[in-house]
Amino acid sequence: MFENSMWLIVVAGGPLLLAILLAYALLTWRRRGPAERRESDRATERLYREENDRPGGGG
User: How far apart are CA 53 and CA 5, in angstroms?
Assistant: First the structure.
């Protein structure tokens, strides 16, 4: 009896847990808006410029 219920937990619980985690990830995944993307791009370009301006900085 215990073995049957254990297999039920493993076989049904595993995919159920995976589905719950996947749903949570999809619901909490935040997309960046255009303004956030532009700001991120500007910050990246600024960091690359600062790196290139350093003595011995990359090419």
Answer: 66
pLDDT, tens digit, 9 for 90 and up, residues 14-58: 899 999 999 999 988 888 899 999 999 999 999 999 988 888 766
Whether 51 contacts 58, CB under 8 Å: yes
Two tokens, residue 27 = 């619901």
Q: Where are the alpha helices (DSSP H) in 1-59?
A: 2-8, 14-28, 34-53
Dist CA 55 CA 42 (whole Å):
22
Distance of alpha carbon 43 from alpha carbon 36, whole angstroms: 11
Residue corresponding to tokens 């749903």: 23
Q: Would you give the DSSP letter of residue 10? A: I
Which pTM value belongs to this model? 0.47
